[in-house]
């Protein structure tokens, strides 16, 4: 696919992604109704599950908070400069705000589902 990109105009939005598809006849397959381009059916799980993604995000958030705490202790003892401490704390604050936003959306969605009539 990279070989077919010869200039920036091949990435134009007006041409779409069809211009990036390889045209080698040996790699083309017949289109089968009900299958996607990679040969799986729509709705088939091909990547990480939602639980895996959320678990990964929680682990990353916890790591960010621990790193900020560690950096703040390093700042107190004089092992880290002020800019590094501020960057770590702001990153942890942003991570915490994101986690709270996810929590609020999940709770809101749960409450909407409980209000639905069966």
UniProtKB/TrEMBL annotation:
InterPro entries hit by this protein: FliE
List where Polar residues composition bias occurs.
Answer: 38-49
Keyword Ribosomal protein part of the UniProt annotation: no
**Entry annotated with the keyword Cell membrane:** no
| Keywords linked to the UniProt accession | Bacterial flagellum, Cell projection, Cilium, Flagellum
Mainly localized where?
A: other
Against Pfam families, the record matches this protein to: FliE
The UniProt annotation puts the region (Disordered) at 22-50
Q: Where in the cell is it found?
A: Bacterial flagellum basal body
The Swiss-Prot or TrEMBL record describes its family as follows: Belongs to the FliE family.
Q: What is this protein called?
A: Flagellar hook-basal body complex protein FliE
């Amino acid at each position: 696919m990279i070989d077919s990109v010869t200039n920036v105009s091949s990435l134009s939005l007006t041409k779409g992604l069809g211009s990036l598809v390889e045209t080698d006849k040996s790699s083309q397959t017949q289109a089968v109704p009900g299958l996607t381009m990679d040969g799986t059916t729509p709705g088939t799980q091909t990547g990480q599950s939602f639980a895996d993604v959320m678990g990964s995000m929680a682990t990353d958030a916890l790591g960010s908070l621990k790193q900020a705490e560690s950096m703040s202790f390093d700042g107190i003892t004089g092992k880290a400069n002020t800019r590094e401490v501020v960057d770590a704390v702001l990153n942890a604050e942003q991570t915490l705000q994101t986690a709270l936003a996810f929590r609020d959306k999940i709770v809101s969605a749960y409450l909407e589902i409980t209000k639905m009539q069966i």
